[in-house]
Design brief:
By secondary structure, this protein is mostly helical. 52% of the residues lie in helices and 5% in strands. It folds into two domains: 128 residues, hpI Integrase, Chain A; 43 residues. It is built from nine helices and two strands, in the order αααββαααααα. It has a two-stranded antiparallel sheet with strand order 1-2.
Length: 196
């Protein structure tokens, strides 16, 4: 629950910032968050589903199959080649022996880290690596970064909004557009279009 006056929305990360950040996190040994941000952006999973992932779900398959906690729907996600390389490389650097363990273990090694810790740590990481968002950093940034990237690569087409609606399990394109802040951006762009 947020405090009065506290900003609760988050925005997408610029794609070049995303690429740079995961590279720097890996370089600096921040493996857990390198993987969390990578897997989060490449899959578009909600944080509740991300935190339940295990290394063996990425082994010997090109599909990640999960049952979403929020919707109870089974979802199949193609494991992108770049994501596969990151997971394999970082898993090796982490020295993981038991592939059935959670990817995002807490410091006691007993269960996954929790969402509130993720959000606090994201703020710290973005500040440390000098990455500015238009709004408050949170785990929603992963899904929104994926969404904005897909839209940009597809020239903000209606078809891409519909695909994202299905990917995000939204009930309508309007919800997806609002989720990604498209309408607000379009309205702000109107002011830029006024020229003398």
């Amino acid at each position: 629950m947020s405090l009065p006056g506290q900003r609760t929305t988050t925005s997408a990360m610029n794609w070049d910032d995303f690429r740079s950040l995961i590279s720097k996190l890996e370089r600096d040994g921040e493996y857990k968050f390198c993987l969390l941000i990578s897997v989060g952006v490449f899959t578009g999973l909600r944080i509740s589903d991300l935190l339940q992932l295990r290394f063996n779900q990425f082994e010997n398959t090109d599909l990640l199959t999960i049952q979403e906690k929020k919707t109870k729907k089974t979802r199949k996600i193609k494991i992108n080649t770049d994501l596969r390389k990151i997971v394999d490389r970082v898993k090796l650097k982490m020295g993981i022996v038991d592939s059935s363990q959670y990817i995002f273990l807490n410091k006691y090694g007993t269960k996954p880290i929790d969402k509130s810790y993720v959000n606090v740590k994201l703020k710290e990481i973005l500040k440390r690596y000098n990455i500015n968002l238009e709004s408050n950093p949170s785990s929603h940034m992963f899904r929104k970064t994926l969404g904005r990237r897909v839209l940009r690569l597809n020239n903000y087409s209606n078809e891409s909004v519909i695909l994202l609606m299905e990917l995000f399990s939204h009930s309508s394109p309007a919800i997806t557009r609002r989720y990604l802040g498209l309408r607000e951006q379009e309205i702000l762009d109107v002011y830029d279009s006024l020229r003398l």
